[in-house]
Design brief:
alpha/beta, Rossmann fold
């Protein structure tokens, strides 16, 4: 079960950070996700990132909604704060928590369904407010917990297990965030830990809304030929995984390639995606250049990865609202309540 913790046994020679902690101290419960799931690779990257940033576990708040992706916070930093909200509502819950205690470091883990379908309105307003958080989308194009229906990020032409291929334009989290004014935007692949870890570290340290969209293949429900975000459990025949109660384990798909290069990544069903890593000459501070670059490579059938956009000039939510430096959760009641006279003045506006 997901509540079973990992044995706290570490080699005495393991590296320690400035807090004297090893990476094992940042782990959580044993994952119950399917063997080979890209989400577990994202978990490993988050563990490495918070370890290297010397974040005190009790100063981290893990937020999530509903879906396979939203189970991820149970699998890292067990000694931190956590809140598993309802479907699509993670951003508003994080907004409230951040408003009450701005001293915590907030990381939200969501999915393409949780963020781009039912939760798209919440996603939009978290960006609009420039909420100070690291927002990770584990993007696999399907609803894993409800047996593999396509989400809003499914590509045109993707074939479901039954019925016609998807003909609807996908919602691209990166382009959407760019158009709405997000101040840190990155994309990576779950199998490219070398790229993903520094992108998460940058997002955690960024003052404002930081999006990390991670292409994270589903080993179970995107197993049919024609999917662009798939891990299938066979290369030769189509199987209805929904009728089975056993998912054969698969090896993690990894990708290693240089800046500026494009790399085809073959998935377990024989389909492939093409990843392109931005080069050193790319300018992440220009929204116009980012839009153009993304669209050109999208039209070429490539998924661009790396730090795509960065704006350090815009104020984050607390600066925009003019809140006090002391977390609201730590203010005495006398400072929080308006008093009878002020309350009467406020209510008089509605009489």
């Amino acid at each position: 079960m997901s509540y079973i913790g990992k044995p706290k046994i570490a080699h005495p020679g393991m590296p320690r950070n400035k807090l004297g902690l090893t990476s094992r101290d940042y782990e959580g419960a044993v994952s119950t996700l399917c063997a080979g799931c890209g989400h577990d690779s994202v978990t490993a990257a988050i563990v490495q990132a918070v370890f290297e940033l010397d974040i005190e576990p009790h100063m981290l708040a893990k937020m999530s909604g509903i879906g396979c992706s939203s189970k991820t916070p149970a699998y890292f930093v067990s000694q931190s704060h956590g809140f598993n909200s309802v479907h699509g509502r993670m951003p508003s819950v994080t907004t409230g928590a951040n408003a009450a205690n701005r001293q915590l470091t907030y990381i939200g883990v969501s999915g393409d369904g949780d963020s781009l379908s039912i939760g798209v309105g919440q996603f939009v307003h978290a960006i609009r407010r420039n909420l100070n958080m690291c927002y990770v989308i584990e993007n696999n194009g399907v609803y894993g917990l409800t047996k593999g229906q396509f989400s809003a990020s499914a590509d045109i032409g993707s074939k479901p297990k039954k019925g016609q291929a998807n003909q609807q334009e996908p919602i691209d989290a990166v382009s959407t965030a760019l158009s709405l004014g997000a101040t840190y935007i990155a994309r990576s692949f779950s199998g490219d830990k070398e790229q993903l870890v520094p992108l998460i570290k940058g997002a955690l340290r960024h003052e404002g809304f930081a999006l990390v969209d991670v292409i994270s293949p589903c080993v179970t429900f995107n197993d049919h030929e024609g999917s662009t975000k798939s891990y299938a459990h066979t290369r030769e025949f189509y199987h209805q995984v929904i009728d089975m109660d056993y998912v054969p384990p698969k090896a993690e798909i990894k990708a290693a390639y240089e800046e500026g290069d494009a790399m085809p990544v073959e998935l377990h069903d024989g389909s492939r995606i093409v990843l392109r890593k931005i080069d050193q000459d790319y300018n992440p501070t220009s929204r116009a250049e980012a839009f153009k670059y993304l669209r050109e490579h999208f039209n070429a059938g490539e998924i661009v990865t790396g730090l795509l956009y960065l704006d350090e000039s815009r104020q984050e939510m607390h600066d925009l609202m003019g809140t006090v430096d002391t977390p609201l959760a730590q203010l005495p009641l006398a400072d929080l309540q308006p008093g009878a006279a002020e309350l009467k003045k406020i209510l008089s506006r509605y009489s």
